[in-house]
Amino acid sequence: MIDAKSPLLALDRLAVAYGGIQAVKGIDLAVGVGELVCLIGANGAGKTTTLKGICGLLPVKSGGIRYGGDDITGRRSFELVRRGLVMVPEGRGVFGALTIEENLAMGAYIRDDRAAIREDVERVFALFPRLKERRRQTAGTLSGGEQQMLAIGRALMSRPKLLLLDEPSMGLAPLMVQKVFETIIAVSREGVTILLIEQNAKLALEVSDRGYVMESGEITLEGEAATLLHDPKVRAAYLGENP
Amino acid sequence: MAQRPDNRGAEHSAPIVDTFIQQLVNGITLGSVYAIVALGYTMVYGIIQLINFAHGEVVMIGAMVAYTVIAALVGAHLPLPPLAILVIATLCAIPACMAVGFTLERVAYRPLRNAPRLAPLITAIGLSIILQNLALIIWSRSPLPYPQIIDTVSYHLTPHANGATITNVQVGIIGLSIVMMGGLLLLVYRTKLGIAMRAVAQNSQVAGLMGIDINRVISLTFVIGSGLAAVAGVMDGTYYGVAHYQMGFILGLKAFSAAVLGGIGNLGGAMLGGLLLGVIEALGAGYVGDLTNLCHLSGWSSSLAQRCADDPHLAVFGSNYQDVFAFIVLILVLVFRPSGLLGERVADRA
User: Which chain A residues have a beta carbon less than 8 Å from that of B345?
Assistant: First the structure.
């Protein structure tokens, strides 16, 4: 399973420390071109630390990261964006004092093709009509769900090859969660490769092709998402069911 | 520009309203310079929460470089109009100051980006001292008189013969400041670089995730602020007709006070704070002598009346107390409204 068809992203025994604690203890993980892969696990399992290690936000202790055939271990985040590797951070991280349009413009920071950028802004607005209505308002005035949509829309503005989503459902009302996941599926269908980090294991496995389960910094299970969804251990630990 | 502009403004015989208008004109001129310097403080603070205490010295270097260029061009007796000499001098001062600002950030502040906040603050004070001493070595310790190349022309603002006036130099300083402030606002609010500056100010980590090279944006912020400082230095030198290796110290402290008055980190605040501070200072210096004139109390004491018969000006504080007002304002702001007049609205950070 690790040998996904021509992996776009491959972690090789990646270890990342966070505040002196080794939160990720040498994991192997691969995401193939066009795949939607989820990494699930409890709070504190090391999921976000893994993503931050990939993006260069936290220093890699050992192991390697390969992306599109290149070794990108230790690269800084702004360089990775130019290669099409984009992360939507946890807690959304929109620029609250900037308008929605300005946030989207920052998503397209690495691009210079003005006409195509305008088209992409319209595509994001088509995806999230709410954002279009409020395009000149500051992002801080948006609701949590709308901010999440803006964060995803902003990430799409860079035309990513690989999108890393960190807990997109966190803190959202159920209706919003559904809307966000519909968007994730739509983006995936457009051919964007996605690595999705989620605490909501059921939802994540339902939309994903494959999944990884993380516990205390290590991968404990991996496989087809449909298989994991019916795995008794996963059901017991993450789906809140008693076997 | 034969002598230092008189802060007391018009003659005593001038109508009261003229005196007031004159102080206002002087204050707005002074305030324009403060505003331009304050922008440099506030931009850097907005983006990396650092008070760059060496910024005043960048202004001083601008004045010094311009002095050198003006003196050389005047000495060469080239057939250049005075305004052209001034423009050339400014165009030399700008890149020189930009280089200094860039170097300060790259060499001194960047390695301390994640250090405790006291470390870069003390570094800034150290850099201020280093730059002053470098200037002392290069340009000597004596005040350098700016060659008087611009003929001062005064325009009457009121019908009174000895009433309030505004000079061509004052018009030039105020006009150029407005243009620069407008240009900066356009840059920060209408260009991609400006939006990126505000994005980095808000959340540099997320800005990095957008592909923004944070170090480059921070460098550019220092470079832009230093370019403004260069022009402010030339304006100050031309206005007072003198440049000195320590001139940046008090000017910098006042501009910093102006930035705090407006709300540090806030561009509009720096502009407002600068103008207000200039006006407060000019009015304060203009009226402190009259307000503290003991002769107003002549009716209460016969000995005082006698002394006032010889000299009707027995002021406790004279206009040489001018510098006090900026710091009184700073203290009042810090006590009563630490976030400044326009608050620290994150929206206006840059």
Answer: 97
Helix (H, G, I), strand (E, B) or coil at B260: helix
Residue B314 in any domain: the answer is no
pLDDT value of residue B136:
97
Q: DSSP readout, A190-213?
A: TT-EEEEEES-HHHHHHH-SEEEE
Q: How far apart are CA B130 and CA B333, in angstroms?
A: 30
Query: Which CATH topology does A7-238 take?
Result: Rossmann fold (3.40.50)
Task: Give the minimum alpha-carbon distance from B271 to chain A in angstroms, rounded to a whole number.
Answer: 20
Collapse the DSSP code of A220 into the 3-class scheme (helix H, G, I; strand E, B; otherwise coil) and give the result.
Answer: strand
> Which chain A residues are within 8 Å of B212, Cβ to Cβ?
78, 106, 109
- Is B288 within 8 Å of B321 (Cβ atoms)? yes
Please tell me the distance in Å from B211's CA to the nearest CA on chain A: 4
Can you list the residues of chain B whose pLDDT is less than 70?
A: 1-13, 344-350
Q: What is the mean pLDDT of residues A51-74?
A: 92
At B4 the pLDDT is 46
* CATH number for the domain that contains residue B129: 1.10.3470
List the single residue in B209, B348, B349 with the smallest CB-CB distance to A87.
B209
Q: Do B210 and A78 touch (CB under 8 A)?
A: yes
ipTM of the complex: 0.89
Contacts of A154 in chain B (CB under 8 A): 210
Interface of B with A (CB under 8 A): 192, 195-196, 198-199, 202-203, 205-214, 345-349
Q: Tell me the shortest Cα–Cα distance from A133 to chain B, in angstroms.
A: 20
pLDDT digits (tens, 9 = 90+) for A128-152: 899 999 999 999 999 888 999 999 9
Is the CB of residue A155 less than 8 Å from the CB of residue A88?
Answer: yes
* Average pLDDT score over chain A: 91
Q: Contacts of residue A98 in chain B, CB cutoff 8 Å?
A: 195, 198-199, 202
Q: Do A89 and B349 touch (CB under 8 A)?
A: no
Q: Which residue of B has its CA nearest to A108?
A: B210
Residue B204: give the domain boundaries. Answer: 16-293+322-348
Q: What are phi and psi of B220, to 5 degrees?
A: -65, -35
Provide, for chain A, the percentages of residues in helix, strand and coil under a 3-state DSSP scheme, each rounded to the nearest 5: 40, 30, 35
Higher pLDDT: A104 or B147? It is A104
- Would B52 be classed as within a structural domain? yes
Q: In chain B, which ranges are continuous DSSP H helix?
A: 16-48, 55-75, 82-103, 118-139, 168-190, 192-202, 204-209, 214-240, 247-262, 267-291, 302-310, 322-336
User: Which residues of chain A make contact with B203, given a CB cutoff of 8 A?
Assistant: 93, 95
- Give the model's confidence band at A19: pLDDT under 50 very low, under 70 low, under 90 confident, else very high: confident
The model's pLDDT over A169-211, given as tens digits with 9 standing for 90+, comes to 988 889 889 989 999 999 999 999 999 999 889 999 999 999 9
Distance from CA of A239 to the nearest CA of B (A): 32
Q: Count of domains in chain B?
A: 1
- Bridge-partner residues for B119, per DSSP? none
pLDDT per residue as tens digits for the range A213-241: 999 999 999 999 999 999 888 888 777 66
In a domain, B29, yes or no: yes
R_g over Cα of chain B: 22
Structure tokens at A75: 């690269």
